[in-house]
Write a structure and sequence with these properties.
Elements lengths: L1 H20 L3 H18 L4 H13 L2 H19 L3 H12 L4 H18 L3 H19 L3 H15 L7 H10 L3 H29 L3
Helix pairs in contact: 1-2, 4-7, 5-7, 6-7, 6-8, 6-10, 7-8, 8-10
């Protein structure tokens, strides 16, 4: 109960800090680190076990950290090699003449497919947002709508793709085979994707920003 209260306080504190005091990575990192230390203390962990748990937890983030680093490198190569503008022009040419709603849907489908290869949300954002943000300007939709398409494509797919470390870990803990999970959840995932298309259409038509 004490740990759950600490988690709840951390979530509330992070939201308050971001909204009121403009906290970012350094402040949020410090808050979560303090919450981890406090949780260890209330559960009466000794220093050895605390350090062991910290190392195991950090090891789960190494893959995501590498993806972010490699993704940033890809974006740097695209920018310095002046390839990014060429990609934007090609994509914009493909979308030229299509309705803005269709353009938002294509962004959503693109993010959904890419999520299989880059399940990390931060890594996927590092690769795609430098492209999709100015692309939104070119096809006449708001950048916030492009971000919404990214969030839907990254979020819903993570509940079923086999490349998601979180999904596979949870299924492993629950001892549920991935194939069984797909048979049970595919209809729900389909409904969520249809819902996302509806919300994106409304966002485009109302000029969501």
């Amino acid at each position: 109960i004490a740990v759950l209260l600490i988690v709840a306080g951390t979530v509330v504190g992070s939201a308050y800090g971001v909204i009121v005091h403009d906290w970012y990575m350094n402040e949020l990192s410090g808050l979560f680190f303090a919450a981890g230390i406090l949780s260890a203390l209330v559960t009466r962990m000794n220093m050895h076990r605390m350090a062991d748990r910290f190392v195991k937890g950090a090891s789960d983030l190494v893959g995501a950290a590498l993806i972010v680093a490699f993704s940033a490198g890809i974006v740097r190569l695209l920018e310095d090699g002046q390839v990014l503008d060429t990609i934007l022009n090609a994509i914009a040419g493909t979308l030229e003449g299509t309705h803005q709603v269709v353009g938002a849907w294509l962004m959503f489908f693109f993010q959904t497919l890419l999520n299989f290869a880059i399940p990390s949300g931060s890594g996927q954002a590092a690769v795609t947002m430098p492209i999709t943000a100015p692309l939104a300007d070119l096809i006449g939709i708001t950048r916030q709508t492009a971000v919404l398409a990214f969030q839907f494509g990254d979020g819903f797919g993570n509940m079923i793709i086999p490349t998601s470390a979180v999904t596979m870990s949870v299924l492993g803990i629950a001892r549920i085979p991935w194939t069984k999970w797909v048979r049970w959840s595919w209809l729900m995932i389909l409904v969520l994707h249809l819902y996302a298309m509806l919300v994106l259409a409304v966002a485009v038509l109302t000029g969501f920003s």
